[in-house]
């Protein structure tokens, strides 16, 4: 492991200043060996009439998706420690054998810990993004943080062995591993998501003739959409690790449940190293993030007018501010602000999503599980995504495009909010069903020494998970896509981290409402989330639907800059950073 990191640290790049002229792609084995620009550009009439299809996904894209699969296998495999369970299910401090957990934390405490875990894992990507965009690049950042992640997994495995649990070291090991693994996953997630899209070197829409003789438009926006569908499919395939680790914890022990993710994660590291020659990776742009904040600060001091931050404006008006960035960088930042406005509404969505690994698991523990651990059924959400992503990507979306319905990002995100609201409404009804059933009614597992759940089959929960899974296809995948397409060329990781940060804010909101996660208030908890999410979805649509009209224009502007990067790699001149006023 040490040899791998020493090998990769040799390639770490130096820090550049704002006015350093560097090519945004490394001229090494990472760069494309040849770049062809298709001249068969569609006319305006063809753009409006021909069917749009995705381009082929490069090998590097699939390799990056596999790396994310192994990371998510490890991440979700850790959900076994500890599953939140009803306080009433604990018998004299010992866990119910059907509701496994080593620490006996109870529902309220475990729910809060789950939310803290999510909060930490989604705030650390900001740090990982800064390291990548400003200092060492995405690939090197992933390697470094993968080492941190692996060390955290090692801490978790060693403190979960029976001797450590009996010696009282398990809780300390859990907290330490949460902090270490959370830092590691942040550095990986902020960079893997933009790295997979970066593998596709967009050249703008062009016409392709199929074997059938039909002429279609190969649309880079549709290709990016497909890439993130593949990426998210791999995420959820990896998340099924929870099924294996839950049974390992039940039949063998927690140490075995964590040893499996530890081993699988090293397969991802091996793939990252061996597949290096297939990746297209970007050089860091030095102090680009600091420059971005300076642009935003200049705009803020001038009543939001970002034109003031352009070098040409400063030259024409006396040069009050020193501007060490290219002219088009300000336009790129303006486009990224569109994404940031859209992201503001996501925390409410993530509170709903967080119910899957907290209150839904607790709810299952109050139902008849028939010998199935209460945290197995949460995999219904992942299975829904695995089944429906190919259906949406291969059938539904192409069918909509064929009849002229583009189903653009703002529309998809809005539908994601509505499906999440439906999931919470169904969970509320499910909880009401539990309260109406015996033997403990509105205090499930609160009678008969907590040995008997209320007489409702756990399968009744399944539609809640399925609805959340469908909502992810619309809201979460589109959010990743939006973060990548709207971000400046050299700030992909940073803007992606801001999108991931909304999940952390959602987790913080979840912690704030976790005191309501007690019986008999859960009906109102789920109902309130359903109403709040529906209202948020309506407000989101009203405020942002106009962005659908400019979607292609904004993406085309981003591709124009990307094509400049491609031509730079191909040997043509690239305008660098350095114009100063």
Automatic annotation (TrEMBL):
GO molecular function: dipeptide transmembrane transporter activity
CC annotations in GO: plasma membrane
InterPro entries named among the record's database cross-references: MFS_trans_sf, POT_fam, PTR2_symporter_CS
Membrane topology: Multi-pass membrane protein
Keywords, sorted A to Z: Membrane, Transmembrane, Transmembrane helix, Transport
SUPFAM superfamilies, A to Z: MFS general substrate transporter
PANTHER family: OLIGOPEPTIDE TRANSPORTER-RELATED (PTHR11654)
Protein name: (Perigord truffle) hypothetical protein
Taxonomic source organism: Tuber melanosporum (strain Mel28) (Perigord black truffle)
């Amino acid at each position: 492991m040490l040899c791998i990191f020493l090998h990769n640290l040799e390639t770490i790049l130096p820090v550049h200043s704002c006015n350093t002229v560097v090519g945004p792609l490394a001229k090494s084995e990472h760069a494309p060996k040849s770049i062809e620009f298709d001249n068969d550009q569609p006319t305006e009439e063809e753009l409006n009439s021909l069917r749009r299809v995705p381009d082929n996904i490069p090998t590097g894209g699939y390799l990056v998706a596999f790396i994310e699969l192994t990371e998510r296998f490890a991440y979700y495999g850790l959900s076994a420690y500890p599953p939140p369970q009803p306080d009433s299910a604990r018998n004299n401090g010992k866990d119910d054998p059907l509701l496994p957990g080593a620490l006996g934390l109870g529902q309220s405490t475990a729910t809060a810990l789950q939310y803290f875990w999510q909060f930490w894992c989604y705030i650390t990507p900001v740090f990982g993004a800064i390291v990548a965009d400003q200092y060492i690049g995405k690939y090197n950042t992933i390697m470094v943080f993968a080492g941190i992640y692996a060390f955290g997994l090692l801490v978790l495995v060693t403190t979960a062995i029976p001797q450590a649990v009996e010696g009282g070291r398990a809780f300390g090991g859990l907290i330490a591993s949460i902090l270490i693994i959370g830092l590691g996953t942040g550095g990986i997630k902020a960079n893997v998501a933009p790295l997979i899209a970066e593998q596709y070197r967009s050249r703008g829409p062009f016409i392709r003739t199929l074997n059938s003789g039909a002429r279609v438009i190969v649309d880079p926006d549709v290709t990016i959409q497909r890439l993130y569908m593949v990426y998210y499919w791999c995420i959820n395939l990896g998340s099924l690790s929870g099924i294996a680790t839950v049974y390992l914890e039940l039949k063998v022990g927690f140490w075995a449940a964590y040893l499996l993710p530890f081993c699988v994660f090293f397969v991802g590291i091996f793939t990252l190293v061996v597949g290096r020659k297939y990746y297209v990776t970007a050089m860091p742009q030095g102090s680009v993030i600091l420059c971005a904040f300076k642009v935003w600060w200049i705009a803020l001091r001038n009543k939001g007018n970002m034109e003031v931050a352009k070098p040409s404006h400063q030259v024409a008006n006396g040069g009050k501010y020193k501007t060490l960035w290219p002219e088009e960088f300000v336009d790129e930042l303006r486009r990224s602000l569109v994404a940031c406005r859209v992201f503001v509404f996501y925390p409410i969505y993530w509170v709903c999503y967080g119910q899957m690994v907290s209150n839904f698991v607790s709810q299952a523990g109050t139902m008849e599980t028939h010998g199935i651990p209460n945290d197995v059924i949460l995999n219904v959400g992942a299975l829904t995504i695995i089944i429906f992503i190919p259906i949406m990507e291969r059938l539904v979306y192409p069918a909509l495009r064929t009849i002229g319905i583009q189903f653009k990002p703002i529309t998809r995100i809005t539908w994601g909010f509505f499906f999440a609201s439906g999931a919470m409404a169904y969970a509320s009804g499910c909880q009401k069903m539990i309260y109406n059933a015996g033997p403990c009614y509105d205090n499930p597992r609160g009678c008969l020494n907590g040995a008997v759940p209320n007489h409702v089959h756990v399968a009744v929960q399944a539609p809640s998970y399925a609805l959340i899974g469908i909502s992810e296809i619309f809201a979460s995948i589109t959010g990743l896509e939006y973060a990548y397409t709207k971000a400046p060329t050299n700030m992909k990781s940073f803007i992606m981290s801001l999108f991931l940060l909304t999940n952390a804010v959602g987790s913080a909101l979840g912690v704030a409402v976790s005191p309501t996660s007690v019986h008999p208030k859960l009906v109102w908890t789920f109902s309130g989330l359903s109403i709040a999410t529906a209202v948020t979805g309506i407000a989101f649509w009203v405020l942002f639907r106009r962005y659908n009209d400019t979607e292609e224009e904004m993406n085309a502007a981003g591709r124009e800059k990307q094509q400049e990067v491609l031509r730079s790699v191909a040997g043509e001149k690239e305008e660098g950073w350095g114009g100063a006023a």
